[in-house]
Amino acid sequence: MKKSDKRNKQEQKKFNRKMQMKLAVLFIVIMLALIGLSVRLTYINAESGDKYTKQVLSQQQYDSQSIPFRRGDITDVKGTILATSEKVYNVILDCKVVNSDEKYIQPTISALTSCFELNESDLQGILNEKKDSRYVILLKKLSYEEIQTFIQMQDEIDEKTKEKKNPYIKGVWFEDEYLRTYPYGSLASSLLGFTVSGNVGNWGIEQYYNDQLNGVDGREYGYLNDDSELERTIKAATDGNTVVTTIDATVQGIVEKHIAAFNEEYRGSYREDDDGSKNTSVIIANPNDGSIIAMASSSNHFDLNNPRDLSVYYSEEEIAAMDDETKLNNLNQIWKNSCITDTYEPGSTAKPFTVASAIDSGKITGNETYTCNGFLNVGGWDIGCNATHGTVTVEQALMKSCNVALMHIALTEGKEVFTKYQSIFNIGKKTGIDLPGEASGIIYSLENMGQTDLATNAFGQNFNVTMIQMVSAFSSIINGGYYYKPHVASKILDSKGATVSTVEPVLLKQTISKSTSDKLKQYLYKTVCDQAGTGKTARVEGYEMGGKTGTAEKQNRDKINYVVSFLGYVPQDDPQVVIYVVIDEPNVEKQSNSIYAQKVAKGILEEILPYLNIFPTQAVEKTEQSTQTTQEASQTSESTTQEQSEQEQTTQENIEESSTSENAALPYQLGDLNEDDSDNEQN
Q1: Could you list the residue range(s) of the whole structural domain that residue 188 is in?
Q2: Residue where a domain stops, chosen among 585, 619, 653
Q3: Which region is the signal sequence (predicted)?
Q4: Model pLDDT, residue 647
Q5: Is 59 a domain residue?
């Protein structure tokens, strides 16, 4: 045998079958171990993966934080910002990071106390008590300027070493937040509303358009990449939309100024401790599309930047005596918008609706005459008028605000027609205005209305309305018969200023024919522009305009407390502005004078009409009184004094003539009706 063959046989003996089996077993054991390890890792990951991941990432100072959205602005019709959100910052302390190394504690505390109004011992206490907390709010809602000193100290670089001067300031960061602010304070407060924590609108536009104004929070995520390095990714926040309103801030300011002036003028003049009225409210609207230009009430006026301040309406002693529930109830009374939430009896401003429904239904032509002897017996009751007018036409019935003529007209048309047109005019129903808290009012149903109810309803007593109902219905009377849904928003813009949607005027129905509208406008024109009209005090010189006065006796018909009002429009041929002034219990000895509301309306119109580019169509004539005043300048002081006394007497007579109580002469209370009528429930 060759030597090479012998060597091969020896090698084969060394790697025999027994060795192969051992190797196979070893391989199988190793594979089983690997499989077991994989199963175990899979199990750990499934059961506790999040726990261990957080532990690892926390050691790498991994963090994830919310990025707040910016709530959208509210602007007036010309873009003036009425409500906005300003970025502010919360100072956040990460106790775990600061406590991770002794050398971080003192430099961080020193930096915080030197830059902010923080106490060193308080900070040390927080680090000890919440040593593992990653999120402790130290300060809230600081401005950008207020945090700059700390940021500069934290990031300051040494020019020589090119390293941070304060490398041991750790665990402090700034959380973004937005603060809702109102640049004009109390302007349009009941219209705008305000926000509470969490960007929740409360009352007004802030509440109604809350979903449009709010956006969606973003998120900043931290994660470890393949090289175990911390990286970040950001999902940007979606900011809220801007609501552009129909409100004109300048007109709103003028309205509020005149309301305040009235209350100041008559504050304490009769009731010593009271303002000029229980409440004075004004609405300015465009009758051709339902847009609200201004809306304000004296009892709903507060600082939007500090809405919980009761000191404007209550003394310190009164506030201290209130429990939480009482405070909240009082605040809600201030926050509400009484122009849409409160109901009242409208008085003679409702008379145009009675006349319009009778003419439009064909029950009268407008050429009728009626005899007023100072009262009319209906259902066994003598229901009075403000004067004995004698024979009056339909036009004169409105001009002189004759209750007797209006009762005759209502009785002629009957309760079926009267209640039908109340529904057509939306009286007693919500208008659907884009504001929260709207009330509906209280009216008689056809089934429950008796003859006496019909008679008193004819001149605006014994049913309740809201101001916005009256403005919307009256607008249809003077614009050709078109009833528009009232609204305070004109369009919605996104955060970049692009139009998301436009709030188009919504024509809901036609209440009366154009011919009826034209006839009513002529009557209303005479009411204001004729010297015999009750609304002559409201006329702005040089303007042709129309309107109707109102004086409603309040419950319990004590002939003491009244709601006085004026509802008018300008100009006569093509009405562009409707104004409604309602004064609840003016602080005067004799409340039943609509002249108080007329004066407020006139003062407002004199300012806003030129601003709105509505100009006089008539030359302002030099009055006899002006001529007389010029002549008096050259007379002796004695004769001047005498003339002034005579003028004051004449003025007082004019006041009594033009503004006597149109509806004051109700001879009964609601509970005093006869048996048939007293059972009627207002519906």
Answers
A1: 65-245
A2: 619
A3: none
A4: 40
A5: no
